């Protein structure tokens, strides 16, 4: 039996779930593709151990090792998604051909990095200051909760009359969704109790969560 090409190091966080959701989509789309999972319970700080620092110098999950390509390591969620697309999604099922469909490819990248550099970090800080900071700092809480709400508003505008973030017409389900929607599932932790004020986002999140690969990938590793 041949070895599964990808080894995913992960835990159940928005970034970890983005990687496992895409891997599950690839499993469903390409018969024969599969991956292994190594659970890294980040509450134990296993991700800071020397063996893992050799895989990801930043000591965070997720990361992957591509056994098919001389044990090549990739860290950072957006880099992982794009790497997997380049090497394991040859039919462009979840992305766009950068050579023949450059504008849509760029559009997808813009939304990926909107989350990578904006929504993800801001929501993460809102979560931290609300639930984990050793003392309540109203300025920090208000700053990050309000900025997270503003960024949700950007998604709300984008999704008006669209099903997905990138692509022509009503859009195509791509890496932009896979990068984004796991964060939105944790909106309550960031101080946004309901998505009712963002109806387009709420409907979009429901569509993304309803996919079979999402249901499986969101539970990697199993609780």
TrEMBL record:
Pfam families: GST_C, GST_N. Residues 3-92 form the GST N-terminal domain. It comes from the Eukaryota. Residues 101-223 form the GST C-terminal domain. InterPro entries: Glutathione-S-Trfase_C-like, Glutathione-S-Trfase_C_sf, Glutathione_S-Trfase, Glutathione_S-Trfase_N, GST_C, Thioredoxin-like_sf. PANTHER family: GLUTATHIONE S-TRANSFERASE GSTA, GLUTATHIONE S-TRANSFERASE-RELATED. Belongs to the GST superfamily. This is Glutathione S-transferase. The lineage of its organism: Eukaryota, Fungi, Dikarya, Basidiomycota, Agaricomycotina.
